Amino acid sequence: MRRETDSGHIRNVGEVIREYRLAIGLNQAAVASALGITQQFLSQLETGTRNPDVEHRRSIAAVLGIPLEELGMAGRQRRRAAEAVTPAAVVASRGRWRVQRHWLNRQRAELGRLAAHWYPSDNRLPGTSLLTGEGWLPSRPVELQSVRLRLHEGPQSVQVAGTEEQTLAVRPLRTAETAFDSYSAAVKHLDPPRLFESRPSYRLLAGSVSSGVLDFGLASYFDKLDVSEALAHELSAACMEHWPDHVSKLRRRLPFRELVGDPFDPARRAVIPAITTLTIRLRRYPAEPSFLLHWRDPARVATAAGVYDVIPAGEFQPSSVALWDRRNDFSLWRNMVREYAEELLGSPEHDGSRSAAIDYERWPLYQRLGAAQTEGKLRAHILGLGVDALTLAATILTVVVIDDDVFDDVFGTTVQFNDEGEVVAVEGGRAADGVPFTAAAIERLLDNEPVAAPGAACLTLAWQHRDSVIS
Fold it and tell me: d(Cα 340, Cα 369) in Å, to the nearest integer?
């Protein structure tokens, strides 16, 4: 497939790829790693000895920012006139940023393990890249309903917002003179996933699971993203071209991480936790219990992309921007039920388009799960609180154990594909069948696959406390 330039020179696709790679100033090894191909394969593409298929062209277009039509594919005619006057420095800055972000999404698990070693061993959960603060990890699981939440709706300040000078290296140029104002602004314009909006969210202010009280304020989702993803990108950029060698001295090249400082200080930055739930299906004897596993598609999500995680998992936030939802949705369990509806049953996400608050007590799914709790057929516990070492994004770790008959009745039609990725089906089984909750399966997953830190922590803690979780 060849392309004719304005001067009449005919160039093949390989020349276009090489031109864009050189324009952003990265070697073949770095770009190939971000694309998930070998350097040899990229070299063959650039020299024209191999021709990229459709999927490779789409991936290359996304990572290098090449218009599809320049790769010989029908697509939107993209800013040809504008490109003629775009400064080379802007093109290079944006291109490097894209490659670094795509490489980040391919190496999150390894980067998380690297980052974890920079923090005291007492704060690390063994076998994972999750960090926990004082009182964040109770000695045994705590019943979900026993933890009291308090909401403070007044304004709350932060000392680190992600707009500081130390983040300039991860905020590419918007114009020749100015960088994007924030990391989220760069994602929105240069690499937007399918789900990307700044929703009101609950911000952790104080408390611990061990104390039985958690205090929250209000913030927005992008307040979290501007710090957490900037931290991850900073590390990605620092070691991308040297991975996996020569990374022992990288800490001194991470000024934003140094600025953030204490990962457990909720007053310094907006600590906006997600809720990650390990769902265990208590199957009829002699079948082993099983758990649900999710692959998070980088094309669909902005955080924790390109890894496996337990399911459901979602931000702790109101269902809409409406003032009445701040209080109505201020419940861990209500948030978890909404995530069950969206991620397992394929229900539309609550997007704030409603004019009234959710009537949970009349919602059939909420009623059925509540009745199962009353009957002792569903048990929900908090395992603890933690932050991912790579992003310092916080998560409330929970586990829900559901008896087989209730699970089959409520979630027997679990969807395999949802808005964030794919629910893993084992050996041709249904998505609802899950993965065996056994030591061998958990060890194999954590040792051999990229697993998000919260999901790994949920599995580790649930297995550690399996006698009390599964009774």
Answer: 10
